[in-house]
Amino acid sequence: MERNLMVAGFGGQGILLLGKLLANTASDYTDKNVTFFPSYGAEMRGGTASCYVVISDEMIGAPLGDAMDDLIVMNQPSFDKYLFKLLPGGTLFINSSIVTAETDREDLTIVSAPVTELALELGNPRVLNIAMLGVYVGYTDILPAEAVMKSITELLSKRADMLPVNTAAFEKGLEIGRAAKK
To answer: Per-residue pLDDT averaged across 147-166, rounded?
Structure first.
């Protein structure tokens, strides 16, 4: 099993943190191999930020940046810019609170989740990435949810006051992802 994922959105939406949590979970709590490529630079300041995560049971030779099994888009510019990278049969995860365009590609599975609205309902707009992380993990089962929660707790330990809202966001996202899978 190998999954190539690209996560894309505005700088400030926690795109790189979402990817880092997946990578840390895979490397720290499973026997899977992982690569993580964040995109830094000017894109962090309001432009399109992105990262690539590859999780595999086998050794990862040379990860491909233009052939994604999964694509998470958190905003419209990312949808427009990166949809072509998604392989036929791939899964497109959309922040439906912001991404309103539709695709005419019939070779994709689309999982829509209103993670911005969900984060606002939980009282903190900054947890939309954790909600989408839950959607992704709930839908793909790529990593054990309990292990991802351990990574969240560990990586965000400096902000212990935020743990309850991050936990709630992750659990709501898991519910959405699992429901979409059925």
So the answer is: 90
Q: Give the total number of structural domains in the chain.
A: 1
CATH number at residue 41: 3.40.920.10
Q: Give the residue among 39, 85, 81 at the shortest CA–CA distance from 66.
A: 85
In this model, does residue 75 exceed pLDDT 90? Answer: yes
Residue 49 has pLDDT above 90, yes or no: no
- Could you list the residue range(s) of the whole structural domain that residue 47 is in? 2-181
Contacts of 181 (CB under 8 A, 6+ apart): 138, 139
Per-residue exposure over 27-62, b if at least 16 CB sit within 10 Å of its own CB, e if not: bebeebebbbebbeeeebeeebbbbbbbbbeeeeee
